[in-house]
């Protein structure tokens, strides 16, 4: 992890944190996640290092290391830590990835986790204000391998594809076929899909076509059309 990640915080709080944002509090959360599910140890190690409290409003920072999703404004939420760990573990399982597309940057926390584990991340967010804030936090903690795009990601981002991985962090009622079409050979896509009841799905692009697995229930904000 970069020195910047350890030592800077955009001037607002120290990324090392104190009290409810301290490394001890962060470790306690990750230790709890370890007990809850079969998760990739590389993902958990990175989550120990990334200061989640910097990705949310200061007023909520004291709750950053509880295993809950929290509001980030504009009616959106930062994903539950267990959800971030599950989705990232599911995406990374298999041959190493070079380029990953994330749809729904939100706070940028999931983006930072991905950026620490794959060489190149492209992330698209439809709400310009959220994208702007995420861009600042990522820059302040020294993350440099993310291309952040403001726009509607519901059809993916074919210009920058194909991708070894696609992670969708907002739920479409039906998975747009254009997304799987942007997967490279062997690529994997993880997305919550559904209207009222959502299921986390993983599609894998194999030589004989797409395979699909269901990874359990999910609870995400809806994937919406258009940008704002
Ligand atoms: N991974 C994020 C989750 C944020 S919530 C985090 O942990 O912070 C999901 C995000 O998806 C929201 O910010 C929402 O604005 C965004 N979103 C919804 N529909 C979208 C679309 N069509 N294109 C891009 N982003 C979208």
Question: Would you mind describing this structure in some detail?
Answer:
- The protein is an alpha/beta fold and 228 residues long.
- It has one domain (4-218): Vaccinia Virus protein VP39 (Rossmann fold, 3-Layer(aba) Sandwich), CATH 3.40.50.
- Helix content is 29%, strand content 26%.
- It is built from 7 helices and 9 strands.
- It has helices at residues 3-7, 23-36, 41-49, 81-92, 109-115, 128-140, 177-181, and strands at 70-73, 76-78, 99-103, 120-125, 146-150, 163-168, 183-193, 198-206, 209-218.
- The protein has a 7-stranded mixed beta sheet. It has a two-stranded antiparallel ribbon with strand order 1-2.
- β3, α5 (109-115) and β4 (120-125) form a beta-alpha-beta unit.
- It starts with a helix and ends in a 10-residue tail after the last strand.
- Bound molecules: S-adenosyl-L-homocysteine (SAH).
- S-adenosyl-L-homocysteine is lined by residues 76-79, 103-104, 106-107, 109-110, 124-127, 130, 152-154, 169-170, 221, 223-224.
- By CATH, the architecture is named 3-Layer(aba) Sandwich
Low-confidence stretches: 1-12
The number of domains is 1
What's the end-to-end separation, in Å? 33 Å
Number of beta strands? 9
Q: Please report the number of helical segments.
A: 7
The ligands found in this model are: S-adenosyl-L-homocysteine
């Amino acid at each position: 992890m970069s020195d910047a990640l350890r030592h800077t915080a955009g001037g607002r709080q120290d990324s090392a944190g104190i009290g409810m944002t301290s490394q001890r509090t962060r470790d306690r959360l990750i230790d709890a996640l370890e007990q809850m599910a079969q998760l990739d140890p590389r993902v958990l190690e990175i989550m120990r290092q990334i200061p989640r409290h910097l990705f949310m409003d200061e007023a909520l920072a004291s709750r950053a290391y509880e295993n809950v999703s929290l509001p980030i404004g504009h009616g959106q939420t930062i994903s539950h830590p267990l959800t971030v760990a599950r989705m990232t573990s599911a995406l990374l399982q298999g041959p190493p990835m070079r380029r990953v597309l994330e749809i729904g940057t939100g706070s940028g926390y999931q983006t930072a986790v991905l950026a620490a584990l794959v060489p190149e991340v492209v992330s698209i967010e439809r709400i310009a204000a959220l994208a702007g804030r995420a861009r600042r936090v990522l820059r302040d903690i020294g993350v440099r391998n993310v291309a952040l795009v403001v726009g509607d990601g519901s059809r993916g981002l074919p210009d920058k594809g194909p991708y070894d991985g696609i992670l969708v962090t907002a739920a479409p009622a039906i998975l747009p076929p254009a997304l799987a079409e942007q997967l490279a050979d062997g690529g994997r896509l993880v997305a919550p899909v559904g209207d009222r009841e959502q299921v986390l799905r993983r599609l894998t692009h194999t030589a004989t076509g797409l395979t699909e697995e269901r990874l359990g229930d999910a609870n995400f904000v809806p994937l919406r059309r258009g940008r704002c």
